[in-house]
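Figure S7 source data.
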Amino acid sequence: MYPKKPPMGFNTWNTFGENINDEMIRQTADAMVEKGLLAAGYEYLVIDDCWSERKRDAVTDKIVPDKNKFPKGMKAVSDYVHSKGLKFGMYSCAGVRTCADYPGSYDHEFLDAKTFAEYGADFLKYDFCYKPEHAHGPLLYRRISMALQSSGRDILLSACNWGCDDVHDWIRSTGAGMFRSTGDISDNFVSFRDIFLSQVDNLKCSGYGCFNDIDMLTVGMHNRGNVAAAGCSDLEYRTEFALWCMAGAPLMLGCDVCSIDDTTLKLVTNPYLLRINQDAACRQMFTVHSECDNLRNVYARLLSENEIAILMTNLADDDCRLWFPFDELGLPVSAGKGLHLTDAFTGADAGVVKEYHYIPLKAHDCAVYLAKVVEV
Ligand code: GAL
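Tokens for the predicted beta-D-galactopyranose complex:
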């Protein structure tokens, strides 16, 4: 399955880690619908690592779901998820074991793809731990892709090799619909900031059919769960979400959606930010202005319908004023044009600005606008 827009959903890893089970998946599915997340576009419910028994079935050689965590089997869970109108995602690994030491799919790719298809999976996250030294990474992703294609079900391949082996050069050719390009996120400002900055120059190979995945969001986690690491303020989470939207990255929620707070819910369903993220043109953002060693930047992204998304970031630790001269966007003063700005966080009309925009930004804050070129 080749996605046309960055995939959106929820993944168990960030909050739940190994503490996953039938009941919490069903509750998560209920919450995704009741809280309007599915309606906003979050359609995949993905079970990450730690879902299976430690050993394959001795007779069939299949991976089997953990009998205590999933006593009714995985098809029952998948049926429930589907009954809510959601899509169902599973997890495996290109190596002999998964990262948390459960059976991996190495040399079992076709059997496992068939098993996932039997479960009714629509998505497979495919990790990279415990890969035999001699095995060629790109070949292992080609193999699982072939296995999924011949499984009889349309299953989106979500590659997760953390950016190894120059993944940007070849991953699109394997048939993956998204690919992790970085190491694991943890729940603090520096983690999401550095992940974002590491991929700014790599977004050119992200788009229609295959999206650069900068990891599951920590937005709204507030230092609870599996990747807790100091946590972030609401202002910082707002910045994180804006960066992911502007990068056109897959939006996989990592917080507990059953207890998601109102501020987070409002943020992750913000129609302006989602419009930027999901824009059909899939053009990559580019840097139009840079200060303070790349920590205070202005990025722009051309959207469909002659709109431009603008992101002004202060990822440094002090408050500042940030300057954005329109000349750097391709709008010289001589053109006699200005930008009509809409604040993407609030939807408020921010007026028509000409020549430049110069705004105060608190430490770790950002501003996001939808802009149209107008006569001035
Ligand atoms: C890591 C991966 C994480 C998570 C974890 C599970 O390799 O990057 O996102 O899936 O494995 O063990």
